[in-house]
Amino acid sequence: MHTQTAAYYMLPGLVLYLLDLVCRGLQLSNSTTLIPGREISVHGRNTITVALSWVPDATIKPGQTVYLRFPSLSLESHPFTVAAVQEEAGPGGGHPRRISTLCHIRASRPVKGHAPTFTGSLMERVLSDPSPILVQV
Hints:
The chain is an alpha+beta fold. Helix content is 28%, strand content 34%. The strands form 2 sheets. The protein has a 5-stranded antiparallel sheet with strand order 2-3-6-5-4. The chain is globular and about 65 Å long.
């Protein structure tokens, strides 16, 4: 009955979803950052601080959202809020040559009987292995 017409309603949404995935993949393929283990730290029981540094190509302010992807943990990008931004002046006081950004991530504890959360998996990875983590911004 309704199954014959359901494809007409589902197809546009599916096409837009796939187009969004392709655009995000292309965007992320151009921005890869290797974060040393010392730049990811754990504070308290459930807070992770990630320090990112890159040459500025956009204006970044505290409170804005950045999408981070940790390929070793998940194929999806996850939104995080920028907590602090520091610009380092270039040679001779010229344009900034580097921007340092801090993101504080609250790790969610897994619910009994459910799969671990992304932030919980990130917390376990940081605590168990101090080696650098590949992050796509």
